[in-house]
Design brief:
This protein is an alpha+beta fold. The protein has one helix and five strands; from the N terminus they run βββαββ. The protein has two domains: 9-53, Double Stranded RNA Binding Domain (2-Layer Sandwich), CATH 3.30.160; 62-93, no CATH class. A three-stranded antiparallel beta sheet has the order 1-2-3, covered by helices on one side. Strands 4-5 form a two-stranded antiparallel ribbon. β4 (64-70) and β5 form a beta hairpin. The longest helix has 19 residues, at 35-53. The relative contact order is 0.14.
Length: 93
Amino acid sequence: MADREFYVVIEKDEDGFFVGEVPQLKGCYTQGKTLDELMTNIKEVIEMCLEDEGDGEIPEFAGIHKIRNISPNGKVSGIAGKGCDQSAGSSRV
């Protein structure tokens, strides 16, 4: 099998654990007490998810955007991101 690259979205939960998810693979997420533990765990989970996917097509990762300053009325004052064409007026986040 050819080498593949996957993006891992990482958050820190309320208990201080790092939680990682691979958006391209359905149900592919795990956690770890440290970033090193998380990355070891996510590699194992990616292997399991790839086995479950079989020969199915894996969607291309399009990017991630950060939205800042969302007011209580729902207005957004700034958008920053990478990987998506903002000039097209996309509403995907």
